[in-house]
Amino acid sequence: MITRSVKLTAALATVLALAACNPAAKPKSADAPAAAEKPAVATVNNKTISAAEFALFVQTQTGKKPEDLPVEQRKQALEVLVGVEAAAQEAEKQGLASDPDTKARLDFDRTQLLFQTLAQKFLKDKTPTDAELKAEYDAKIAEMPKTEYKARHILVKTEAEAKDVLAKLAKGAKFEDLAKAVSVDGSKTQGGELGWFGPGQMVKPFSEAVAKLNKGETTKEPVQSEFGFHVIQLEDTRAVTPPPFDQVKDRLAPMIQQKKVKDYIDSLRKAAKIEIKEV
């Protein structure tokens, strides 16, 4: 099956998205009752389990606050957490926290949590304005393709096979029939039909070839891509209609927040004393 091109998302973008959108990492409000100020919910070998730790455990396991659970479920959850704490203490006794892989994971988890908390604090008073949302919308619309294409193709493994397909088409063979007979792409069962797609959705050689065709025209030479050799027939084109601003407004806010956090992190990086080692 023909594979449409996919842009890899940078790891930083994923982290930024978590920081901007992860409600579980949201810092508590200064005027809200602090769970940490409540009495400890348990002790294990003289180590306390705070109400805040218990609340976080319940939230991650159930998506609810402890007070929203029935009493029996709260007790069960606390018993599980006590067991986890006892096991963690035993791991410490056995020196597992000093294991290089475990230590690296603990360090990374701490770094990521602090990053997310800082990002949440940074964004607290930076809700995107309507002007910022509109500017982001205009920028995205400008990047959108202006035309979509509807095409069929026949994919074969060699140039010789592709030229044979072209010769048969020139003699009057039906494109759909040849696609079903010789194409190695999954679209062969639909006679090579690919439906509507934008330029960036197909691999570059394919997109460039389609853009040069007129409606009803077939490529005169085989088009080579990483998947093999294509014979392409353009069926139709249409102008792309962008979605209304109000329809996508809510989806633009996280994008703007991610950019703000990225700019903030870039400024911290520039101000930091950094020494890069070879890896």
What keyword list fits this structure?
Chitinase A, domain 3, 4-stranded antiparallel β-sheet, 279 residues, 6 strands, alpha+beta
Can you tell me about this structure?
The chain is α+β, with helices and mostly antiparallel strands and 279 residues long. The chain is built from nine helices and six strands. The protein has helices spanning 11-21, 51-62, 71-93, 100-123, 130-143, 159-170, 175-182, 204-211, 245-271; strands at residues 42-44, 47-49, 147-156, 193-197, 223-225, 228-239. It has three domains: 11-121, no CATH class; 130-141 and 243-268, no CATH class; 145-239, Chitinase A, domain 3 (Roll), CATH 3.10.50. A hairpin with a 2-residue loop joins β5 (223-225) and β6. α1 crosses α4 (100-123), α1 packs across α9 and α5 (130-143) packs across α9. It is 50% helix and 13% strand. The longest helix is centred in the last third of the chain and has 27 residues, at 245-271. The radius of gyration is 29 Å and the shape is elongated.
How many separate domains make up the residues?
3
Count of helix runs: 9
Order of helices and strands: HEEHHHHEHHEHEEH
**What structural class should be given to the helix and strand makeup?**
alpha+beta
Indicate the mean pLDDT: 88
Strand neighbour order, sheet with most strands: 4-3-6-5
**Biggest β-sheet strands, sense, barrel:** 4 strands, antiparallel
- Bin the strand percentage: 5-15%
Could you tell me the radius of gyration in angstroms? 29 Å
Overall number of strands:
6
Helix content: 40-55%
Distance between the termini: 37 Å
